[in-house]
Amino acid sequence: MTTNTANVGLIQQAHNENVNNWDPPVTSNFAALDLMLGGITVQSLSGIGSPLALSPTQCQNRVIMLTGTIGAIGQITFVSSIKKRFTISSTGLTAGFTNQLQLGVVGFPGAFVGVPPGQTFDIFNDGTNISFHNFGPPIGGYWDHAGSSVPRWVTDCSVPPYLNCLGGTFSAVTYPVLAALLGGNVLPDFGGRVRAYLNQGQSRLQSSLSGIDGNTNYAAGGVQTVTLSSLHLPKLVDVQHTHAMMGDVPGSNVIAGVGANSAASIGAGVSQSFTGLTYGSSSQTFFSVAQPTAIGGLTLIRAA
Fold first, then answer.
1. Which residues contact 66 (CB under 8 A, 6 or more apart)?
2. Fewer CB in 10 Å around end: N or C, the chain?
3. pLDDT in tens for each of the 304 residues of the chain?
4. SS (HEC) of the chain
5. How far is CA 282 from CA 155, 196, 225, 296, in A?
6. Contact 52, 45 (CB under 8 A)
7. Which of 104, 128, 89, 87 is nearest to 52 (CA)?
8. CB of 65 within 8 A of CB of 43?
9. Nearest 5°: phi and psi at 244?
10. Distance (Å, rounded) from C-alpha 37 to C-alpha 226?
11. Global pTM exceeds 0.70
């Protein structure tokens, strides 16, 4: 009896079945293989207001191109009977990037993923779960995102593949590899900070000098503003006292802009006193510290 392969549904003939009549099944298999290796199907999402189930024929294609406006479609589902890799192109989507759009198996029995807008990427359907395939940096890698918040497609995933590096905690059960890499379930905190790297034996960042332990991963430090007390600068008072100033020619030396003696004419051998200056305070802000900087969004870490 004719059966079908378990993963992609190719025709399998039983022994001695259709003797001398192999053309139909062989032709069908070649057609299916052609779709799986190079077939492209285009699906417009414009005007679709409910979940869309792709047909088995559509799911045989290697590439699925999404076009139009996302709108309120919400979800696109794949048949469970065709287990393989797909290339998804969202470069044809024109609007609706803030709306939900998820890819899953019919009935959503397992994991599902969101659709990154304007990209071409691979997914894998194992019959229960949809997962990204060869997507982004490895777990623990950083992604510098130019936006001001975590993208919608990340939060649309059943297990978000990226987490915002803002010092929060995460589930070590959900993200065991990341937890092992970080040595715990606390994310690095890069909010409003410039990222530096481990000393690796160079001793360039030291707690005693910079307030940052460059030998400990994810250590943080430094100060936002510097005061005279934090710089250990003393308060200096230059009290009034007398300086002897000798003029070579009587009346020829004029000292301008010195306290009460402005434009005073200093004669030979004449001593003058000047009111001193007081400066410095242990409580005042001396200056704010920031190297030339541009703000470029946020940093996320690959978590799953």
1. 43, 44, 45, 76, 88, 89, 90, 92, 93, 115
2. N
3. 778 788 887 877 777 666 666 667 778 888 888 888 999 999 999 999 999 999 999 999 999 999 999 999 999 999 999 999 999 999 999 998 999 999 999 999 999 999 999 999 999 999 999 999 998 999 999 999 999 999 999 999 999 999 999 999 999 999 999 999 999 999 999 998 888 888 899 988 888 888 889 898 888 887 766 665 555 555 555 565 555 555 444 444 444 444 444 444 445 454 444 455 455 554 555 556 677 888 889 999 999 9
4. CCEECCCCCCEECCCCCCCCCCHHHHHHHHHHHHHHHHCEEEEECCCCCCCEECCHHHHHCCEEEEEEECCCCEEEEECCCCCEEEEEEEEEEEECCCCCEEEEECCCCCCCEECCCCCEEEEEECCCCEEEECCCCCCCCEEEECCCCCCHHHHCCCCCCEEECECCECCCCCCHHHHHHHCCCECCECCCCCCCCCCCCCCCCCHHHHCCCCCCCCCCCCCCEEECCCCCCCCEECCCEEEECCCCCCCCEEECCCHHHCCEEECCCCEEEECCCEECCCCCEEEECCCCCCCCCEEEEECC
5. 48, 30, 13, 35
6. yes
7. 104
8. yes
9. -85, 120
10. 63
11. yes
Q: How do 101-105 and 63-69 pair as beta strands?
A: unpaired
Question: Would you say 169 and 157 are in contact if contact means Cβ atoms under 8 Å apart?
Answer: no
Q: State how far the alpha carbon of 206 is from the alpha carbons of 22, 194, 219, 227, 261, in Å.
A: 76, 16, 11, 20, 49
The answer to whether residues 301 and 163 touch, using CB atoms and an 8 Å cutoff, is yes
Any idea which residue has 């777990």 for tokens?
Answer: 139
Residue appearing with tokens 């715990």: 184
Closest CA to 121 of 130, 133, 112, 111: 133
| Nearest-angstrom CA–CA distance, 81 and 93 | 27
